[in-house]
Design brief:
heterodimer, A: seven-stranded mixed sheet, four-stranded antiparallel sheet, B: four-stranded antiparallel sheet, globular
Chain lengths: 122, 107
C-alpha cells in the first residue's frame, strides 16, 4: 500500500524556519517524481514545488522561490521541504504528493499524504 | 504563470443530476489538464488526468473533455458521495497551477 506521511509542521514566528519531511512507503520511491502542494485555511490548492526522481530537476512557485528548498533522500525514502523567511501567508496545510507515472507526461498527482499544518504567527 | 479559471465557483444540485464544471486556461495547455476532488479535511483525489483519462478506481460517471484552453468535468448522475470541492490543474507549464475550485453542494 502506498503511503505518504508528512511531519514537521507547527507554529513558527514570521521570519523563522521549518523543515517538513515526507516519509514514503509501499512503492519504489527513487523512481517517482514528487511535489509539495499547500492549502491555506479555507482556501484553494497551491502547488509549491517539484523534484525529479533523481533530484536533478527542481521547480518552485514564484511565491516561495528563494525561500523554500525541496530535496529528497532516496536511500531514506524521504522528501523534504526546507522553509526559510516564513511569512504569515505561508500558513497552510502542506501535502506531499507523488507524480503519477503512466507514460503520459504530467499526468497529475496520484497519491497524497494527510498533510501537516504550518502556522506562521507571532 | 498560466491562470486557471473555473466556473461556477459553487453549484447546488440534487442526487441523480447531471453536472458540468468548466475550466478555462489563460493560454493553450494542449491536454495537460487534471481534475481533483477534495472533501473537507481530506487530501485531494485525482479523478481525471490528461483531460479525459479516467484515473484507476474512479467511477465511470466522472468524465472529462476538452483541449487547448477549454475543459469540462462532467458527473453523469450525482451520488451522495460526490458532494465535494473540485479543482482543475494545469501541468503544461513547469509551474503547476490550480483553478480556484468549484464547491458542489446538495440542493
Amino acid at each position: 500500500e502506498v503511503q505518504l506521511v508528512e511531519s514537521g509542521g507547527g507554529l513558527v514566528q514570521p521570519g523563522g524556519s521549518l523543515r517538513l519531511s515526507c516519509a514514503a512507503s509501499g512503492f519504489t520511491f527513487s523512481s517517482y517524481e514528487m511535489n509539495w502542494v499547500r492549502q491555506a485555511p479555507g482556501k484553494g490548492l497551491e502547488w509549491v514545488s517539484y523534484i525529479s526522481s533523481s533530484g536533478s530537476t527542481i521547480y518552485y512557485a514564484d511565491s516561495v522561490k528563494g525561500r523554500f528548498t525541496i530535496s529528497r533522500d532516496n536511500a531514506k525514502n524521504s522528501l523534504y521541504l526546507q522553509m526559510n523567511s516564513l511569512r504569515a501567508e505561508d500558513t497552510a496545510v502542506y501535502y506531499c504528493a507523488r507524480q503519477q507515472d503512466t507514460g503520459i507526461a504530467a499526468a497529475g498527482q496520484d497519491y497524497w499524504g494527510q498533510g501537516t499544518l504550518v502556522t506562521v504567527s507571532s | 504563470d498560466i491562470q486557471m479559471t473555473q466556473s461556477p465557483s459553487s453549484l447546488s444540485a440534487s442526487v441523480g443530476d447531471r453536472v458540468t464544471i468548466t475550466c478555462r486556461a489563460s493560454q493553450s495547455i494542449s491536454s495537460y489538464l487534471n481534475w481533483y476532488q477534495q472533501k473537507p479535511g481530506k487530501a485531494p483525489k485525482l479523478l481525471i488526468y490528461a483531460a479525459s483519462s479516467l484515473q484507476s478506481g474512479v467511477p465511470s460517471r466522472f468524465s472529462g473533455s476538452g483541449s487547448g484552453t477549454d475543459f469540462t468535468l462532467t458527473i453523469s448522475s450525482l451520488q451522495p458521495e460526490d458532494f465535494a470541492t473540485y479543482y482543475c490543474q494545469q501541468s503544461y507549464s513547469t509551474t503547476i497551477t490550480f483553478g480556484q475550485g468549484t464547491r458542489l453542494e446538495i440542493k
